[in-house]
Amino acid sequence: MKEIRLKLLPYQRRVFQSQKPIIAFVGGTGTGKTWLAARWIVLKALEHGGEHLAISPSLKLMRRTLWKEIKKVLKEWGIDYEKNEQDMIISLPCGRIYGVPADNPERMEGVHAKSAVFDEAGQVDKRSVFETAFRRLRYHRGQLLITTTPYRWNWLKELYDKALAGDPQIELVTARTIENPYYPKDEIERARREMPEWRFRMFYEGVFTKPLGLIYPDYELVEPFEIPESWLRIRGLDFGYNHPTAVIWLARSPEGVWYAYRELKKSELTLDDLYNILKEENIPTYADPEMKQGLETLRARGLDVRPAKKDVLAGISFVQGLFKQKKLKIFSSLNKTIDELSSYSWKLDANDQPLDEPVKENDDLVDALRYALFTAEGFRATAPAYKPIKVDFL
Questions:
Q1: I want to staple 27 with a disulfide (CB 3.0 to 4.6 A). Which of 6, 31, 80, 324 is the partner?
Q2: Helix (H, G, I), strand (E, B) or coil at 196
Q3: What is the largest CA-CA distance in the chain?
Q4: Is the distance from CB of 207 to CB of 150 less than 8 angstroms?
Q5: Interval 151-164: pLDDT, tens
Q6: How far apart are the C-alpha atoms of 75 and 129, rounded to whole Å?
Q7: For the whole model, what pTM was predicted?
Q8: If you write DSSP's letter for every residue of 90-129 in order, what string do you get?
């Protein structure tokens, strides 16, 4: 019988010893999350045989991190295995490990897995990936290990809160970067000096926080669905080149609820490139009015591109109202938009009090969102009512 020895830190030992159905290891940068995830899933496969799932946010990240680490572990431990890189399958003498990119969760269907690991799960905003993985484990009552940094508030934050409230199904294991004795202490201190406190706490202390003065704290995510043809559709456009070009697509339901359903954020996009993307669906597009050349060029080529109303504070106030009234919702597949919404903040004064000026950083899609909604609907909603003038003729 092969003997495997693991040298574990205290928080890593808690993960391996837990018997709960869900183990959520939420840790800071450098706490060994992927290292642990690979060893945990390989040991489960060797111990129980059968089928096991290794999940990452994307195929690219899977190949670069978790999949690579799993093969490294098997080699280090001298375990014979065969691999199918195209189908992402590792075959062991006693079972199989399936690699599953989170953008293709259907790959889990039909598998009665005995364990699953979901690495960097906080990067995935679709709750359905977590739900599918957990469902595929129920036949064998297998365990799901989640390893992640708390990137933003999504379904993972809800799971985290349930664990803190004492949910008996969830083992919550947290770790700060400084708890890893091998991580350079000077790098931690550099990050502490240079990062906003809220961001340092998330990425180095593994704590869910929000920026001070977050502008859109009430945004709501929904699972993507097919937009009916009859719904009104518009776009917001923020021009760029070295700075990213950003486009966001919106549709309004008959009940008056707006849904952001598609996004584009890309640098070095020429006007020709942009035209070829926008012409696929020639719908009203509200763009930064200061970019007159871009506006005129696209309009000359037949696109319905209109200058947006650029009253920043009034526009922000209007979009805030839509979120609060639940009349604006974001498809959970719009990762770049969600990333901006989770960090878009007011500037702070010396006493950390918000100023009436947003931080101009990572705001391309939220600007496009404001252009579209405030111009198409907000200006009409906030415009003063017309009052007739009474004229007396002498």
A1: 31
A2: coil
A3: 111
A4: yes
A5: 888 889 989 999 99
A6: 30
A7: 0.72
A8: EEETTEEEEEEETT-GGGGTT---SEEEEETGGG---HHH
